[in-house]
Write a structure and sequence with these properties.
The chain is of the alpha/beta class. About 60% of the residues lie in helices and about 10% in strands. The chain is globular, with a radius of gyration of 22 Å. This is Lysophospholipase L1-like esterase.
Length: about 240
C-alpha cells in the first residue's frame, strides 16, 4: 500500500509539473509585433501603390510556425525621416503603449534623411547620415526605456541607385554604404540586431525593383527582406 501511495504521489507530481510547463509554453510563443519606419515597411510598390510589405510577410512567418500573433501594428509612413520617427516615440501615446507591450520590433529608417539632402543639395548629403545616426541612437534608447526586454531588429538598405549609370553610382553608393555602416554601428552598440538586405536584393535588383524610375520593391522583394529578418529572429531564439 505504501508503495502504491508513493507511486501515485510521483505520478501526481509529474502531472502537476507537466501542467505547469504546458501552461507556460504558449506564452513563450506569443508575439506582439510592431513595425516602424518609412515607405519600405509601409509597403510602397514600384508604381506608387501599396501592397503587402515585409512586416506583413514576417507576421505570416510567425503564424505559419505556430506562434500566436496576438497583436500586430504597422506604424510605418512613406517619406518618414528619422526625426519624425524619433518624435513619434517621444510624443505618440499609442505608439508608446504598443512598444511597451511588444515582443518584437522592426525598424527601417534613415534613407530619407540622406535622399532629401541629395535632392536639395548633394554637398550636404553626409549631414543627413549624421542626423540619421544620432536620431537612431535616440530611437533605440527610447525603445529600451519603454520596453527593455523587446527584441529590436534594424534594417540595412539595399542599393536604391542600381539603375543609375556607373559614374553616378560611384558617388551615391558610398553614401548609402556609409549610412548602412552608421545604422549597423548604432544598432549593435545598443545590443540590438542589424539585418542587412543588400546581399539579398542587389544581385537581383531588376527582379525585385522592376521600375527604373522608382527605387521601391515589389512584393517579391518584400518577401525576400522578410526572409532576412526571419533568419535573424531564428538566430536569437533561445532553446
Amino acid at each position: 500500500m505504501k508503495k502504491l501511495i508513493f507511486s501515485l504521489m510521483i505520478v501526481g507530481a509529474l502531472f502537476s509539473t507537466s501542467s505547469v510547463t504546458f501552461a507556460y509554453l504558449p506564452s513563450e510563443r506569443n508575439v506582439e509585433y510592431v513595425a516602424l519606419g518609412d515607405s519600405i515597411p509601409a509597403g510602397m510598390t514600384p508604381y506608387g501603390s501599396y501592397d503587402l510589405s515585409y512586416p506583413d510577410y514576417l507576421m505570416n512567418k510567425f503564424e505559419s510556425r505556430n506562434y500566436d500573433v496576438v497583436d500586430y501594428d504597422n506604424f510605418a509612413v512613406s517619406g518618414y525621416t528619422s526625426d519624425q520617427l524619433k518624435n513619434d516615440l517621444k510624443d505618440n501615446n499609442v505608439i508608446q503603449q504598443e512598444i511597451k507591450e511588444a515582443t518584437h520590433i522592426t525598424i527601417t529608417i534613415g534613407a530619407n534623411d540622406l535622399f532629401q539632402r541629395l535632392l536639395s543639395d548633394p554637398s550636404t548629403a553626409s549631414e543627413g547620415i549624421t542626423i540619421a545616426s544620432e536620431n537612431l541612437q535616440t530611437i533605440l534608447s527610447t525603445i529600451d526605456e519603454l520596453n527593455p526586454d523587446v527584441e529590436v531588429y534594424v534594417m540595412g538598405y539595399y542599393n536604391a541607385f542600381a539603375y543609375y549609370p556607373e559614374e553616378v553610382q560611384e558617388f551615391l553608393v558610398p553614401l548609402l554604404d556609409a549610412l548602412n555602416l552608421e545604422i549597423e554601428k548604432r544598432t549593435e552598440a545598443n545590443g540590438d540586431t542589424y539585418v542587412p538586405t543588400g546581399d539579398r536584393i542587389d544581385p537581383h535588383f531588376e527582379k525585385y525593383m522592376p521600375n527604373p524610375e522608382d527605387n521601391h520593391l515589389n512584393v517579391k522583394g518584400y518577401k525576400a527582406i522578410a526572409k532576412e529578418f526571419w533568419k535573424a529572429i531564428k538566430n536569437n531564439i533561445q532553446y
